[in-house]
Amino acid sequence: MDSLSSVILLPLLSAFLILLVPGNYRVIVRAIAVLGSGLTAWIAASLFFRFQPGHEGFQFESILPWISVGKLSLAYHVGADGLNIGLILVTGLVGFASVLVSWNIDRNPKLFYILLLLMIGGALGAFASLDLLFFYFFNELALVPTFILIGVWGRGENKTVAAFKITLYLTLGALIALAGLLLLHVSIGAQTFDVIALKTLLSGKPLSSTLQNWIFPLLLFGFGTLVGLFPFHSWAAEGYAAAPTAAAMMHSGILKKAGLYALLRVALPFLPDGAAHWLPVLAWLCLGNLLHCGWVALRQKDLNLLIGNSSLAHMGFAFLGIASLSVIGITGTVIVMVAHALLAALCFALSGYLESQSGTVDMTRLGGLLRRMPVFGTLMVMGFMAGCGLPGFANFAGEATVLFGSWKSLPWIVVAASWSGLILGAVYMLRALRSILYGEERKELAAVIDLGWWRRLPFALLIAALLLFGVAPSLLSRRIEPVAKEIVKAATNRSTPSRVAAVVVTP
Amino acid sequence: MEHAAVQHAVESGSKIQDLAWMILVAPLVMAVGTTLFVPRDRTLAAIFNIGGVILSFCLSFVLFCVFGGGSAQCTPFEWLPIAGLDVHIGLHIDPLASLMLLVVTGVASLVMIYSTGYMHDDRSYPRFFASLSLFVFSMLGIVLADNFVMLFIFWELVGISSYLLIGFWYARPAAADASKKAFLTNRIGDFGFMLGILIVWSALGTVDFAVAKAKLAENPTLLGSMAGIAGLLIFMGAMGKSAQFPLHVWLPDAMEGPTPVSALIHAATMVAAGIYMLCRVFFLYTAAPGWPGPLSMLGDLSAATLISLVGAFTALLAALIAVQQNDIKRILAFSTLSQLGLMVMAVGLGAKAANPSAAMFHLVTHAFFKAMLFLGAGSVIHACHHEQDIWKMGGLKAKMPFTFWTFLIGTAALAGLPPFSGFYSKDEIFALALETNPILFGVGILVSVLTTFYMSRLVLVAFFGSTRSESADHAHESPGSMKWPLVVLTVPSLMVAWLPLGPFLSESFDPAHPVHLGDIFFGPFNHNPIAAFFGFGAALFGFSLAYSLYWKATKDPLPTQLGLLSKVMRNRFYFDEIYETIFISLHNLFSHIADWMDRWVISGLVVRGVSGLVDISGRALRLVQTGNIQSYTFFFTVGVLLVVLLARK
After folding, report:
1. What is the pTM for the complete model shown?
2. CA distance A156 to chain B (A)
3. Fewer CB within 10 Å: C terminus or N terminus of chain B?
4. What is the domain partition of chain A in residue ranges?
5. Portion 157-176 of A in contact with B at CB < 8 A
6. Chain-chain contact of B171 with A419 (C-beta, under 8 angstroms)
7. Cβ-count burial of A288 within 10 angstroms (0-12 exposed, 13-18 middle, 19+ buried)?
8. What whole-number distance in Å separates Cα of residue B167 and Cα of residue B174?
9. Does this complex have an ipTM over 0.95?
10. Do A29 and A103 touch, CB atoms closer than 8 A?
């Protein structure tokens, strides 16, 4: 068994194993989940470090023919390049962390862990697959448990509404994206869904630009909805506020990135004319993420809603890098994706622990917690500082790279992005720290207990990864840059003259 | 191109490199080590952190002596290598940097020793030392940075260390708010700084200082019409850190932090970072001026001139405010603002002579005597049981002789009396202003009068006369750990100006004409008598004014004499209130609108759309459910016919 497939299969197998264990053997259920996800994280990390940066093409590749009906042939095809190797690593880490923070799940832990492991395995499968059908299947495999997790283990009064909303939005988004993928497949007229094969076919015979202009928006808005692209974002914050901690970590951290990943893997390189036509629109829409969601975050009293909106604002950076269509910008986008996966997971894990201790995430009812919870408080300050772009954490490296990459083509949007990242982000993050940790101690919060030694592990893991990539972002950029070059090369290889240049306003 | 610049390292390069890296990293190691391994051990935390900073100081001293005025770039390691954006972490050493290293590590060592006394009873003693070490690390990073992005990285790290230290007593709402305000105000400056870096990078194609400098020297018009904007945006960063108008509002509030922090960060080092940064990227300000279309009316006015105006305005504004403050730390804070304004003015004026060393010179002297004044103030506050109102002190001269005499020396230096160091460095600024811009010379002299006035007021009210409160009655001299750093600081406060710093610093720039710095005793009266006499006269005038008003005064006569003006000065010209109304309300308004849109418009789009669709189709389909057998048969027949029809096609 090759290691890339094993990293997908491990969580799925663990889920199957748990299925066989009687539900009241909680310790065994939990042990299997912890071991399975821990081992997954370990293998994902070893894959990341064994990956040879600077090499063209895919590594750890493996193909298993699956179905051959008539001319159509489907194959299980996985492989890693700079675009997905970082995502595979963080999926492993976040998955492990999300299993670890679920220690206080009392209701039907068996089903909970099965769903969570399916999410992890599905996400890993989606990132590793080089076959569009498998990508879609794995992505849905990860999405569906999200809805169930919110519906059954969700928190808050409006969890039913939130679960309904998130299901509706994400299903619609996924359907639109599917329509786009199918249309793409039909118009290429290929007998395969294999990404590499499709790319070779397209480079010989590109689609007409009218067709591209129809397919691209389907992919952009379909996958964009999965990421929370403005104005299709309003499911996100509410959904995360209602989701159990682990589901919020996995979805906002990992599954959201699948949409961006598909845009980079499929939409940009396959549809250069569509990209030229629609990326200016994306550039304007990402202003919505950067500023609108930033402002909305300013208003929130509920910590989860604040984190949810802030995470949407961060997605603005990822979209901006894509819209810039430059090597530096796209490299930045991928760094942002990796960094934000760790950050979002960390923030939701923090708020989950906070809620488990104080019983609320309403910031008006919290305060002065740093004295009683110094370790938790320190982790929270670090996490939130990473969130407002403090150098030393990976998010700064990604966001700064996006700013550099987009400056030449989209200067005014970079101005807005800097305002959002440096100022709005700092305002709401510092407000949250001020009202939760600082100030005088409150009597009603005297019972809170700080993180014990073992509870620190998931937080330490995520912070360590953020610091590692923040101090040495070259670990990521070296792996990403060759792919970013390929994407840009394919995406700028268009038949009609550039329209991007016409929209650009130079300072 | 990049490599050519990197490789002009000297023969003894490798040793210099090791030294420089050790200077930078030692405080970080101590900060991290303390936090991870000895978060509760007070003694070990103090020993480690003080040891780390003293090690840095000793190594800086060695570097200064061995390496002297040379300049070298250490082999960098790659941070973010992408084609077109090659960011590395490398160290750049030149006279400017090696002097600044000494100032930062020297003041930091003394402040940390002092803190063992001042913070003795604090329960978070180890955290305090770790945060100070983290700050020193960040500050040294700024000093040694060899490119814009690295500078920005450490710039931000200084911001966060300052945030942690101002909010050190986080349970106090005032401290928690002040730390937030400081960080956010700095972020506004950093916003401009970042954009400035982006402009410079896109015009010059590099973020490396040496390469950028070489490119601009080759072709001064390379920045084109963006030269002015880039200069001003980069200056915005300095505005934040060095608290220049209009971003000055955070510094007085930052006095909520422990006093040693005020001495180190908000007097000697962090606030000086803005000036240092301007000197480091000085080559941008000597390039040809240029403005884009809409601003073309600015013509030949360079960014440097505008900077000098901002500096002069800040200097005057802060000096006026300081006259009517009663809190000992706030007076010193506004005096710091005012002196920073003078330095910024000097940087701006220096652009014509291609030499900002007058500003750097004042930075160095100011760092020592202002740190001493703050530590002295801390000693007073410590003795008076955290009483900070000077009108509730009085008569401390006899009770705290050490503190009094050192404070007096600091005051004399700040006021600019010869032979104290402040006189020489201020004189250099006045001489520069006299040559380049006589109006700003006038402003400088006025600021000098005000400076002497408010400092004399402070000394006369706090140390002379009779004690005016119980806490001042029980005051006694501070312990040795606090006393001796004060005594040590008198030496540079008196003598640092006697060193030939001018020619030494000039090697970092390419000055158009030689400088006179380092004149001992009455030198300034020889080479520029007008400036020297005015400076000296301003100090005497300010003192006599203060003496006539405040000798043996029990309350401030100025509020009755000045009326409304005094109130406005006391309330800092209402800048906080103005900002509160304009910026904060504006952002709150935006966020209200955005939140409303999110709830009622956007959120409705899809959810209502889809549920509406389901609803309508449900209603339509309900019409079909008649419950009537005949109509069902009818629909069935129509259906069958349709299928048959379609099938036949």
Report:
1. 0.90
2. 18
3. C
4. 3-504
5. 165, 168-169, 172
6. no
7. buried
8. 9
9. no
10. no
